[in-house]
C-alpha cells in the first residue's frame, strides 16, 4: 500500500484489486516483455504508468528458438534419448538439412528479426508476416512479407513471435494446420495461447501425413523460462535499474520531461483548459491540429495533454497523461488529431497548436517562444503580442470601447495585494476584445470585475 513503484516478473499478477489497494502506486515495471500479467486498462484508468523491458531477453529468446528449430530438423532430443537407452538408430534419426528450406516468421519485431537473420546463416529462405512492420523494413533484414494465406502452404518451418492478443489467440488452429504443407514443423517460443494446442494434437493424431511421424510420439517442449539464462536475468535486472524501460500505456510521458517537448505539452494542457473555460463544457468533439513540420509527430503526446487540460476541475480525479484519453472518452469527450505541414506566420519555423470545440466557434491557438507557451488566438481574436500561459492567469472578454475595465481590474488587484505581472489584449472582433492578465496569485473573488466584462475566468497554468 505504501509503495510508489512495483517491479514484477511474469509470475506476479498485478490485478485491478492490487492496483486499487496500492494507493500511492505510480509505475509498474515488468522485468521482461509480455504484460499479460498486468491489468493495463485498470492501471491506465488509475493513471499508473506500465513499462516493460522488451530488449532484455530478446537475443536469448531468439537463440532458444534457433535451437528448437535445429532440434526439430536433426531430431536431436529423440536421437539423444535413443542413445541413452542403449540403441543405435542411425537411419531412424537422420533428420533433414535446413539449407534451402523455408522458414515462416510470424511477428517481425525484435525477436522475430533476430531469428530470421540467424537462420538465414543456415541457408534458409525466410518469409513472414507482421501487421505493423512494413514490407520495406522487413526486406532490410531479409524477410519477404506475405499474407498469412500464402505463408501456410509454403513453409517447412513456422516460428511464432507475436504478443498474446485477442487477434493472435489461436492463430495456428485447425484451419491453418490444414493449409500447411506436409511435414511442416512449428516452434512457439512466445505465448502458449497463440497455438491452439487442441488443434495441434488433432493434427498430430488425425493427419499424420501433414506432420513428421516422430512428432506423433515425441513432443519437444521447454518452459518459457528457458529464455531467461542467468546472464539474461542479470541483463533484465540491469535494464530495470538503469531506466531501460519502454512505456506500455504512457508514451506521452516519454516526451513530458524532454527540454524540447516539455513546453509544448504545457501549451497543449493550457489550451485544453482555455477551451474548456470558454466552451463551458467537457463533452463533445475536440479537434487537435498540429501545424508546421516540426510538430509532424507531436500529435501522439500533445493530444493526451489537451484532453488532460479539458478535464481539469471535472469529476475525474488525478488526470494524467497516462489516463487522460481514457477518462475523456468515458466523460463523453472525443479528441481527434490532424496535422498540417503549413503553419501560419510568424510561427512557421517553430510550429503552432490549435484546439477547437467542433460545432461551435470556440478555438484557441498557441505556440512556444523559447520555453514559454503563449496564446496566439482565441475565438478568432488575434494577439499581436502573444500572451504567456504560465502561472495564475485571468482571462476576460470586454467591449473594446469600455474604458472602465482596466481601472476596475487594477483597483481590485490593489485591494487584495495581488500584483499584475503581464497584460496582453487581442485585436477587436465584433467590438469586443480578449485580455490575458498574468497575476502573482489567484483572485478569490471576481464579483467586482464581472459588471465590467462580458465573461471572465481564471486558470492556474
UniProtKB/TrEMBL annotation:
Organism: Corythaeola cristata (Great blue turaco)
Protein family membership: Belongs to the D-isomer specific 2-hydroxyacid dehydrogenase family.
Protein's name according to its UniProt entry: D-3-phosphoglycerate dehydrogenase
InterPro entries linked to this entry: ASB_dom_sf (IPR029009), D-isomer_DH_CS (IPR029753), D-isomer_DH_CS1 (IPR029752), D-isomer_DH_NAD-bd (IPR006140), NAD(P)-bd_dom_sf (IPR036291), PGDH_ASB_dom (IPR045626)
Signal peptide: none
Pfam families: 2-Hacid_dh_C, PGDH_inter
Residues in D-isomer specific 2-hydroxyacid dehydrogenase NAD-binding domain copies: 67-207
Claim: Transit peptide is one of the keywords in the record: no
GO BP of this protein: amino acid biosynthetic process
Amino acid at each position: 500500500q505504501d509503495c510508489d513503484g512495483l517491479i514484477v516478473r511474469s509470475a506476479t499478477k498485478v490485478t485491478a484489486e492490487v492496483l486499487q489497494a496500492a494507493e500511492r502506486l505510480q509505475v509498474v515495471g515488468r522485468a521482461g516483455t509480455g504484460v499479460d500479467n498486468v491489468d493495463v486498462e485498470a492501471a491506465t484508468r488509475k493513471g499508473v504508468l506500465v513499462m516493460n523491458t522488451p530488449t532484455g531477453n530478446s537475443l536469448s529468446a531468439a537463440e532458444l528458438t534457433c535451437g528448437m528449430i535445429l532440434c526439430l530438423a536433426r531430431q536431436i532430443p529423440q536421437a539423444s534419448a535413443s542413445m541413452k537407452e542403449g540403441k543405435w538408430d542411425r537411419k531412424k534419426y537422420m533428420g533433414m538439412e535446413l539449407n534451402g528450406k523455408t522458414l515462416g516468421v510470424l511477428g517481425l519485431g525484435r525477436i522475430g528479426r533476430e531469428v530470421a537473420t540467424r537462420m538465414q546463416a543456415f541457408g534458409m529462405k525466410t518469409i513472414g508476416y507482421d501487421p505493423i512492420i512494413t514490407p520495406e523494413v522487413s526486406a532490410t533484414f531479409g524477410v519477404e512479407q506475405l499474407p498469412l494465406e500464402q505463408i501456410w502452404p509454403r513453409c517447412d518451418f513456422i516460428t511464432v513471435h507475436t504478443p498474446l492478443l485477442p487477434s493472435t489467440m489461436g492463430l495456428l488452429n485447425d484451419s491453418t494446420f490444414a493449409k500447411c504443407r506436409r511435414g511442416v514443423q512449428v516452434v512457439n517460443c512466445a505465448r502458449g495461447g497463440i497455438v491452439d494446442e487442441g488443434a495441434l494434437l488433432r493434427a498430430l493424431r488425425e493427419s499424420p501425413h501433414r506432420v513428421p511421424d516422430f512428432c506423433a510420439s515425441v513432443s519437444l517442449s521447454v518452459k518459457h523460462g528457458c529464455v531467461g539464462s542467468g546472464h539474461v536475468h542479470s541483463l533484465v535486472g540491469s535494464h530495470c535499474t538503469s531506466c531501460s524501460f519502454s512505456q506500455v500505456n504512457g508514451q506521452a510521458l516519454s516526451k513530458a520531461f524532454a527540454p524540447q517537448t516539455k513546453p509544448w505539452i504545457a501549451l497543449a494542457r493550457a489550451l485544453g483548459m482555455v477551451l474548456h473555460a470558454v466552451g463551458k463544457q467537457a463533452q463533445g468533439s475536440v479537434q487537435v491540429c498540429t501545424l508546421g513540420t516540426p510538430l509532424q509527430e507531436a500529435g501522439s503526446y500533445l493530444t493526451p495533454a489537451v484532453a488532460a487540460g479539458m478535464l481539469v476541475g471535472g469529476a475525474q480525479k488525478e488526470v494524467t497523461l497516462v489516463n487522460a484519453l481514457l477518462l475523456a472518452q468515458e466523460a463523453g469527450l472525443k479528441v481527434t488529431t490532424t496535422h498540417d505541414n503549413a503553419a501560419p506566420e510568424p510561427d512557421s519555423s517553430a510550429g503552432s497548436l490549435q484546439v477547437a470545440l467542433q460545432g461551435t466557434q470556440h478555438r484557441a491557438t498557441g505556440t512556444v517562444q523559447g520555453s514559454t507557451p503563449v496564446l496566439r488566438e482565441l475565438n478568432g481574436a488575434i494577439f499581436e503580442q502573444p500572451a504567456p500561459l504560465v502561472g495564475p492567469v485571468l482571462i476576460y472578454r470586454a467591449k473594446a470601447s469600455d474604458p472602465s475595465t482596466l481601472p476596475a481590474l487594477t483597483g481590485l488587484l490593489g485591494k487584495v495585494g495581488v500584483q499584475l505581472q503581464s497584460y496582453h489584449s487581442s485585436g477587436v472582433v465584433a467590438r469586443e476584445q480578449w485580455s490575458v492578465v498574468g497575476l502573482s496569485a489567484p483572485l478569490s473573488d471576481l464579483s467586482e470585475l464581472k459588471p465590467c466584462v462580458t465573461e471572465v475566468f481564471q486558470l492556474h497554468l
